[in-house]
Write a structure and sequence with these properties.
The complex is a heterodimer of chains A (309) and B (248). Chain A has 8 helices and 16 strands. With 309 residues, chain A is α/β, with parallel strands linked by helices. The mean pLDDT of chain A is 97. The longest helix of chain B is centred in the first third of the chain and has 15 residues. Classes of the chains: A alpha/beta (309), B alpha/beta (248). The structure holds flavin-adenine dinucleotide and adenosine monophosphate.
Chain lengths: 309, 248
């Protein structure tokens, strides 16, 4: 089988999310990588170095600068004439593009796969991860999004694929990019961090969140996450949300601070290696999944902890 | 303009789903069902556009069993004007739903379709994007803010890393994210009024589309269960534990 994978990037550098997709695709067959962007040659070079990538197809066109699904999907659908499977990470970019590709090809997408069982059979979470479905497709072309935490990352070094520059891009003329607000941070990314400190509604305000959670995260070199309640209340930006409908994470250590443990939150973090919970309610559901629990007022416990680590 | 809002009847988000012991699926017998939470946000957004004088009519549509009427009645009670039930007892995949919706779009000619970003049962996150592809329309997925202005709509999208704004020509498809708005509750008088609002009942055959499933679910199992660990007495004990597991 010939697979085509979506290389996630910002035209300057390849994103880590790509590496898990390479691993998933390699279970199906030969891995061809697509770098679609504008001024994206350095990304193509990085993709060519990833272990396991056979060829990189680079499409460099102004209409692809911002990854608009309306422009990207027809390009991918065209390339699928000579490939058998399209795989993208289950990031907001992948989730935006892949279903549009699937519909153009008249196939059902298989979302957020956890494993490749065979060439046509995959497992995926449903009902906020409260059930795992094994699904078998009858479509002749596969369109798949890959859950990053479920596959090892391919090595970003060691490959020596050739880069082929190809055409085929055009502006569909139905949408335009206006602007982007991307927070710059020195912190590790949520989805690749080894340690995550997450705060919930209990923090009460963005000032308190900053005052209590940030120093602990700084001490641990951790990424910062949050529950939906904390995001909705404006304590932190939306892309901090961990959960069924936010980011899926599986760090070495996940600290849930003032988070109750609703199923939608657990869906995003229960595959973490060690879960630590600090909550003043001893019956909070988060304690049912926590390896280490501390029943305490976070406003006392967290500063004390920060002082002692 | 007209706005079409697809709404799905799903397990209530407060219910913890139980996997059937024979691996055939999730037990939905006697389980509380509700409108998919993202679809409530879609209905709310459509109503706000109508209240702002930017839309004239809101049509709610659901593909599902007879009971999905209740979901549509909820949409009507919130403020949708009329409803279409595409009645089927089969489970229809996102591609099939998108094909049916595309036919309804042909008939109704809405300028906007507002879907939820994700149904909380299948967690597919596909239908809106697929519909946009079938129609050749622009798509504003994971909408945080929607701003309709004349012949176009600006959609601020929740993306990894922050927010992105795109401008879409109308007609277009939008999918809603959690921060777009807070859906209203239907008032008792509006629930009464909703009973008189029109609800069309259709069958899949009326639309002449092939919705035969492409995926077969061969097994549904419980995820590995996580055992609760232990509670520690104080911060010092927590620090010891964290050291013991190599966390610090
Ligand atoms: C469609 C849908 C999608 C959703 N998606 C997500 C998602 O992706 N991610 C997500 O997180 N949620 C999601 N939710 C929301 C979820 O259902 C919960 O509402 C949310 O996770 C609750 O956040 P929380 O735990 O911070 O707040 P709460 O449930 O209010 O919990 C606060 C906790 O803090 C504790 N506390 C209070 N004060 C203190 C103190 N001083 N010291 C210590 N502890 C204290 C309390 O005991 C309580 O346990 C979703 C909901 C819906 C309907
Ligand atoms: N059976 C259905 N009837 C009506 N709308 C649906 C149906 N299935 C999906 N949708 C719409 O598509 C969105 C995304 O669903 P999904 O792609 O299944 O995650 C939902 O929030 C609904 O707006």
């Amino acid at each position: 089988m010939k697979t085509l994978i979506w290389v996630e990037h910002d035209n300057a550098s390849m994103k880590d999310a790509t590496l898990a997709v390479v691993t998933a695709a390699a279970k199906l067959g030969e891995v061809h990588a697509l770098v679609a962007g504008s001024g994206c040659a350095s990304v193509a070079d990085q993709a060519a170095k990833v272990a396991g990538v056979a060829t990189v197809h680079m499409v460099d066109d102004a209409s692809l600068a911002n990854g608009l699904a309306e422009n990207v999907a027809p390009l991918v659908a065209g390339l699928m004439e000579s490939h058998d499977a399209f795989l993208a990470p289950a990031t907001t970019t992948g989730k935006n593009i892949a279903p549009r590709v699937a519909a153009l090809l008249d196939v059902m997408q298989i979302s957020d796969i956890l494993s490749v069982e065979s060439a046509d059979t995959f497992t995926r979470p449903i009902y906020a991860g409260n059930a795992i479905a094994t699904v078998k497709t009858s479509d002749s072309k596969l369109v798949i999004t890959v859950r990053g935490t479920a596959f090892d990352k391919a090595s970003p070094e060691g490959g020596s694929a050739s880069v082929e520059s190809i055409g085929g891009a055009s502006d569909a003329g139905v949408s335009t990019f206006v602007s982007e607000e991307i927070a710059k941070s020195e912190r590790p990314e949520l989805t690749s961090a080894k340690t995550i400190v997450s705060g919930g509604r209990a923090l009460g305000s963005s000032e308190k969140f900053e005052e209590v959670i940030t120093p602990l995260a700084d001490k641990l070199g951790a990424a910062i996450g949050a529950s939906r309640a904390a995001v909705d209340a404006g304590y932190v930006p939306n892309d901090y949300q961990v959960g069924q409908t936010g980011k899926i994470v599986a760090p070495e250590v996940y600290m849930a601070i003032g988070i109750s443990g609703a199923i939608q939150h657990l869906a995003g973090m229960k595959d973490s290696k060690v879960i630590v919970a600090i909550n003043k309610d001893e019956d909070a559901p988060i304690f049912q999944v926590a390896d280490i629990g501390l029943v305490a007022d976070l406003f006392d416990a967290v500063p004390e902890l920060t002082g002692k680590v | 303009m007209k706005i079409l809002v697809p709404v799905k009847r799903v397990i209530d988000y407060n219910v913890k789903p139980r996997v059937k012991s024979d691996g055939s699926g999730v037990d939905l017998a006697n389980v509380k069902m509700s409108m998919n939470p993202f679809d409530e946000i879609s209905v709310e957004e459509a109503i706000r556009l109508k209240e702002a004088g930017k839309a004239e009519e809101i049509i709610a549509v659901s593909v599902g069993p007879q009971k999905a009427q209740e979901t549509l009645r909820t949409a009507l009670a919130m403020g949708a004007d009329r409803a279409i039930l595409v009645n089927t007892d089969e489970e229809v995949e996102p591609l099939g739903v998108a094909k049916i919706l595309a036919k309804i779009v042909e008939e109704e000619a809405p300028q906007l379709v507002i879907c939820g970003k994700q149904a909380i049962d299948d967690d597919s996150n596909q239908t809106g994007q697929m519909l946009a592809a079938l129609l050749g329309w622009g798509q504003g997925t994971f909408a945080n803010t929607v701003d309709v202005d004349g012949g176009s709509v600006d959609v601020k999208r929740e993306i990894d890393g922050g927010l992105q704004t795109v401008k879409l020509n109308l007609p277009a498809v939008i999918t809603t994210d959690l921060r777009l708005n807070e859906p209203r509750y239907a008032s008792l008088p509006n629930i009464m009024k909703a009973k008189k609002k029109p609800m069309d009942e259709k069958s899949v055959a009326d639309y002449g589309v092939d919705i035969s499933p492409r995926l077969t679910t061969t097994n549904v199992s419980e995820p590995p269960v996580r055992q609760a660990g232990e509670k520690v007495a104080d911060v010092d004990a927590l620090v010891e534990k964290l050291k013991a597991v190599g966390a610090i």
